[in-house]
Design goal:
Structural class: alpha+beta
Radius of gyration: 23 Å
Largest sheet: 5 strands, mixed
Order of helices and strands: HHEEEEEEEEE
Shape: globular
Distance between the termini: 80 Å
Oligomer: single chain
């Protein structure tokens, strides 16, 4: 009788597990947007007067501080106007070493646009005079590339 119970329990667990996987695989939330959908259109007018960005630097993300468009966002996508000059300033909020770099799609730093490394809590660093070009795709911390990274879109007016 014990062998039969073990077989039944094992069979039941296999069936329950397979059923659960099949149900999860078949789940589809019709309200979710597909991943391959085009991103939202950017309202360029919101970004035209921006010339400075301010972030909180921490291991988990870049925290948007200024301008108001990015305030409170984690790794906000920012929009630059091609040819316009920008300053990027950030403050270290966790006492861990960080920097900020502007990179292209190959992961290369563009025109040496990178801040000093900063590891003291409350210390600030800047990258000044960044002229927006279409090759700019991301701002990132060299030390926390998987968590401290935000997208850049460059628009022409």
């Amino acid at each position: 009788m014990e062998d039969t119970e073990r077989f039944s329990r094992r069979t039941a667990m296999t069936v329950v597990g397979a059923t659960g996987i099949a149900l999860l695989a078949g789940c589809n939330d019709d309200d979710e947007e597909p991943d391959d959908e085009e991103p939202e259109e950017v309202d360029i007018e919101e970004w035209e007067d921006v010339d400075e960005f301010y972030f909180d630097g921490q291991i988990e993300f870049w925290g948007g501080v200024e301008p108001a468009i990015i305030e409170g966002e984690e790794n906000p996508t920012i929009t630059l106007i091609e040819g316009q000059e920008y300053d990027f300033t950030w403050v270290n909020v966790d006492g861990v070493e960080h920097n900020l770099e502007i990179r292209d799609e190959d992961g290369d730093i563009i025109d040496d646009y990178q801040s000093d490394d900063v590891s003291e809590e409350g210390e600030e660093a800047s990258v000044d005079g960044v002229v927006a070009t279409e090759e700019m795709v991301t701002y990132i911390c060299r030390y926390h590339e998987t968590t401290q990274v935000g997208d850049i879109t460059v628009e022409t007016v």
